[in-house]
Amino acid sequence: MTQVIRILENVRATTPLVHCMTNSVVPEITANVLLAIGAAPAMIDLPEDARVFAGLASALLINVGNGLGEQHQGMRLAVDAAESAHTPWILDPVAVGGLPVRTALAREVLQHHPAAVRANASEILGLTGESAGGRGVDATDEVEAALGAARSLTQSSGAVVAISGPTDVVISPDRTTRITGGSPLMPLVVGTGCSLGAVVAACIAAARSAQLTDHDGVVAAHALFAAAGTLADRQASAPASFRTAWIDALYTVKPDEVVRLAAIEES
Amino acid sequence: MTQVIRILENVRATTPLVHCMTNSVVPEITANVLLAIGAAPAMIDLPEDARVFAGLASALLINVGNGLGEQHQGMRLAVDAAESAHTPWILDPVAVGGLPVRTALAREVLQHHPAAVRANASEILGLTGESAGGRGVDATDEVEAALGAARSLTQSSGAVVAISGPTDVVISPDRTTRITGGSPLMPLVVGTGCSLGAVVAACIAAARSAQLTDHDGVVAAHALFAAAGTLADRQASAPASFRTAWIDALYTVKPDEVVRLAAIEES
Amino acid sequence: MTQVIRILENVRATTPLVHCMTNSVVPEITANVLLAIGAAPAMIDLPEDARVFAGLASALLINVGNGLGEQHQGMRLAVDAAESAHTPWILDPVAVGGLPVRTALAREVLQHHPAAVRANASEILGLTGESAGGRGVDATDEVEAALGAARSLTQSSGAVVAISGPTDVVISPDRTTRITGGSPLMPLVVGTGCSLGAVVAACIAAARSAQLTDHDGVVAAHALFAAAGTLADRQASAPASFRTAWIDALYTVKPDEVVRLAAIEES
After folding, report:
1. Which of A60, A159, B40, B126 could form a disulfide with B96 if both were Cys (CB 3.0 to 4.6 A apart)?
2. Which of the residues C68, C103, C189 would you substitute to probe the A interface, choosing the one with the greatest number of A C-beta atoms within 10 Å?
3. Confidence band, pLDDT 50/70/90 cuts, at residue A141
């Protein structure tokens, strides 16, 4: 728990600069969420600019949801640059499985040592080839059904693997953590999952600068989201007002409140 | 009226998966609106992925507002795939008329049997070549002035044609329905028109699975928007708070409340 | 002050049509802000459509934040068309300095006589080559440190130059105006700076049609943003609810209230 507090404090202390290469639906909420938690967003897709920036950023998010070919080319260059510069990068394999182009892209970049993979259960199964993925961006598989695939993925890639659901599971080769919290309204707000990928990036950067593990960073990000979701759920009962309350809560919630509100369980 | 209730209930019962190929301004509100009404959004523009997905989705939205050439190519493939798979698809000819590239695209895809065309009066006149279109995305023509063009369009294309305005008109070869409701604040919130196109897609899918007509589906979508607009107008007097109240209302309003709030008139 | 009032009244009286070519993060907030102040937005990036539209619009915004190559090509054509048609156009050099592609683009279009350049201090220094730009989209330099670069820029380009910060500075060859107001929450809402560029475009169009100067138009835009920020700050203490209150305030604030709320100082 003290790691979560230290990481969230360190995000505000160091303002990690997160290079986001993300889909066309969520850039605005992703940027607003990063600003709310104390990080700094930069969306840069153009190949040459992305290549330059990935080497300078604190962390890089690759979200393979809806984008065009030139952005995909930028992602390839950015992942290469991040790998060379030891910039931690995060893969969010949105709706991977049934869609041929983005599935091939996700599997290709996965070879370049992401620090973490964050997805729902169907996407983890889609990425590892054990399922055709979910229904659009929604998971049709349960979190626990993807645990085996997630364990294989963390072993083969070295990445921390996070599966989002009512209870999130964060897995690395020698550690499994479950985080419970949030609200049933969260899946009704587009971008809550995608912006979590960006917050994972920010928290991994903050964890590394505090000499903590990437696994700790991923747990801190999920705990923060769960806690803000729990707080917003007390204030709002419909998705648009929930969205406002939730971003406000990401801004106002204190790190010690996060660890009180989110149920974090190691196993 | 019972058709409207059955369709809106069926959206929540069947969660139609709406493949949205839409403009750069509105993906987020479109996705949030679909989630609020009980449907599932998927934004997929990349040609090969769009081609695959259009055959699997419950319905497809083609909105020719601001997009790039690769998305336009994806739209061509998706419309073809939808036509082959009998996936209902909806055309929203945003600002068609004066802009050469998107006007040519809209007229080209129109040949592939859309289930519905949804637009404002200027766009209907622009699509049929009777006007140079509106002023940007805003209508400069009155709904009633576009009735003749809409009648020609439904005859020639077979599509249900909906003209949005203070009173919406839904026209098919043998039926005309007018829906009144909403709020004068709706045109001040970007994406209320564009997301209506996506909701038309969801409601046509739900209508078909309930053995009702596409015309019924288009009416249900417009009635839902009008009712939510009326409810939100009671709570908010400026556009950003209206936007929140309106999306919340799309989530909370019950189907029987929709038919009480929206004035639906057959002629 | 009377100029500010006349310009803001004239925006509502004439509804300037603002052609926005902007980055992937902010189209929605930009459109909503333009609608809230009484202007009309049109986002058109496709080269041939952008070329046609730039000649018809009331003003054009070129924001070189995150975009793809085809949009950049469209910007070149649109700037040419605007210059030929004497359409005022505004340059927003987002994150220019360290990123090679967008920096070259910004410097290239700058040769085509923008009416105004709006940026933060780091971006002004990045545009003139005196700094490598800020940290992503955030300024790392102080407004006053960029005054010299801004003076050179207004002399060489003929454009009114506006530097955004806690106190904004608007500079033309023979006039310097400072505007103070707003809220510390504004930098935590993505797009408040980018949408200011669009409002500068609308206000320059409204100033010209009222036989006032472009400098007056830029000041009016900044005063409106500062006043709305001050009003929203009284209602909200976290970024998402601030965003709602701020857009509402842009819609409800009266021109005479703007000049009472924003401190405008000529020097």
Report:
1. B126
2. C68
3. confident
Residues of B in contact with A238 (CB under 8 A): 36, 247-249, 251-252
CB within 8 Å: B32 and A95: no
| Contact with chain C for residue A73, Cβ under 8 A | no
Which residue in the set B24, B48, B245 is minimally distant from A100, CB to CB?
A: B48
Kindly give the pairing relationship between strand A89-92 and strand C175-180: unpaired
ipTM here: 0.96
**Which of B11, B17, B46 has the most A C-beta neighbours within 10 Å, making it the best mutation to test the interface with A?**
B46
Residues of C in contact with B123 (CB under 8 A): none
For residue C112, give the DSSP letter. G
Predicted TM-score (pTM) of this structure: 0.97
pLDDT tens track for C39-51: 999 999 999 999 9
Is A191 part of any known ligand binding site? yes
| Contact present, B240 and C248 (Cβ < 8 Å) | yes
Contact C84, C57 (CB under 8 A): no
Please give the C-alpha separations between residue C151 and each of A84, A196, C214, in angstroms, as whole numbers. 41, 42, 16
The structure tokens listed for B189 are 């919130």
Q: Quick one: pLDDT at residue A135?
A: 63
B97-122 residue pLDDT tens: 989 999 999 999 999 999 999 999 99
| Fold of domain C2-266 | UDP-N-acetylmuramoyl-L-alanine:D-glutamate ligase (3.40.1190)
Instruction: Determine the Cα–Cα distance for residues A119 and A126; give it in Å rounded to an integer.
Output: 10
Nearest CB to A52 within list C100, C237, C238: C100
- One DSSP character per residue, C134-181 reads -BTTB--S-GGGGHHHHHHHHHHH--EEEEESSEEEEEETTEEEEEE-
B240·C248 Cβ contact <8 A = yes
CA distance C204 to C8: 10
Domain range list for chain C: 2-266
Neighbours of C254 (CB within 10 A): 12
Contacts with B48 (C-beta within 8 Å, 6 or more apart), sequence order: A100, A101, B77
Distance CA C76, CA C46 (A): 11
CA distance A229 to chain C (A): 14
Whether C31 has its CB under 8 Å from any CB of chain A: the answer is: no
- Other Cβ atoms closer than 10 A to C56: 17
The region that residue A33 occupies, defined by phi over 0 for left and psi between -120 and 50 for alpha, beta otherwise, is alpha
Cα(C167)–Cα(C165) distance, integer angstroms: 5
| Contact (CB<8Å) B68/A68 | yes
* Closest alpha carbon to B67 in A83, C47, A231, A10: C47
Residue B75 pLDDT greater than 70, yes or no: yes
Contact between residue A250 and residue A224 where contact means Cβ atoms under 8 Å apart? yes
- Three-state DSSP class for residue B264: strand
Distances (CA, A) of C235 to A208, B232, C229, C242, C243: 38, 20, 10, 7, 11
Report the relative pairing of strands A167-172 and A175-180 from DSSP bridges: antiparallel
